[in-house]
Design brief:
Layout lengths: L1 H14 L8 E2 L4 E2 L3 E3 H4 E2 L8 E4 L4 E5 H10 L12 E6 L6 H6 L2 E6 L14 E7 L16 E2 L14 E2 L2 E3 L4 E8 L2 E9 L3 E2 L3 E5 L6 E8 L2 E4 L1 H9 L8
Parallel strand pairs: 2-7, 7-9, 13-18
Antiparallel strand pairs: 1-4, 3-5, 6-7, 8-9, 10-11, 12-15, 13-14, 14-16, 16-17, 17-18
């Protein structure tokens, strides 16, 4: 009986995956078919290259570095995460490491500290700087460019902040009655008009005079207010930075 137990134990140990030595995370992490494997993540993955890590459904996916490390070890790979990464960003498309892409590895980017619903206004406490491997090309480098904007879609806690996920907060909605001001050379006229579309601060939208039914273009300046005429043209030319919602 004892000999049989020893034989079984030896067989089990021999069947266990031996660590294939230290592997390193690729400088440019990408997959080409939506199936993220250990071979997509690590150089020298060998026989574990086909082990599935996650399925990517969007242009990129964010992986938990600790979970990846555990899966790699169970698959016989030893990744000690020398940079102390918390997240790994995997983008779609074939990897083509270059000096430029290598510089993108192991960087600090903004990630969401909580899950957000579509329409939620972004607050300073909703983001934190996190060290990740790689980052999407539209990852903001300044939190101030995102604060005050709204989520375009549901956003998951821990995911990397991307400019395509947010939109300027709308201050005018279609159907709103808006105070529209025309001014030039010290002369100012104001009328109430109906918004025919939605707009954020600094954006153009159409309004309709409820009496004459004439439709004109205006630029939103605040909730319920807009300008038209020379002032609207000046704002469009100068951009909306001075009216940015914060």
């Amino acid at each position: 009986m004892r000999r049989a137990l020893l034989t079984a134990l030896c067989a089990a140990l021999m069947a266990s995956p031996a660590l294939a030595g230290s592997v390193s995370l690729k400088a440019d992490v990408a997959d080409s078919d939506g199936r993220v494997t250990l071979g997509d993540l690590f150089d020298g993955a060998g026989g574990a290259s086909a082990v599935l890590v996650a399925t990517r459904t969007g242009p990129s996916i964010v992986l938990d570095a600790a979970a990846v490390q555990g899966l790699a070890r169970r698959s016989g790979l030893d990744w000690n995460n020398p940079q102390g990464l918390r997240r790994i960003v995997v983008r779609g498309g074939a990897a083509a490491p270059t000096a430029a892409t290598a510089q993108r590895g192991n960087v600090e980017v903004l990630t969401w500290t909580r899950s957000l619903n579509a329409g939620d206004v972004i607050q300073p406490q909703d983001m934190t700087w996190t060290k990740v491997a790689g980052s999407p090309p539209d990852a903001p480098r300044d939190a101030d460019t995102v604060i005050g904007m709204t989520a375009k879609r549901p956003l998951r806690e821990g995911a990397v902040v991307s400019q395509r996920d947010v939109v300027a907060q709308q201050v005018i909605k279609a159907g709103d009655m808006v105070q529209v001001t025309w001014s030039d050379n010290g002369i100012s006229l104001t009328l109430q008009a109906k918004a025919l579309g939605a707009a954020a601060v600094g954006q153009s939208f159409s309004v309709q005079n409820p009496v004459s039914k004439k439709v004109i273009e205006a630029v939103a300046t605040a909730p319920g207010t807009a300008v038209t005429g020379p002032e609207a043209q000046r704002l469009k030319a100068a951009g909306s930075s001075q009216y940015a919602v914060r």
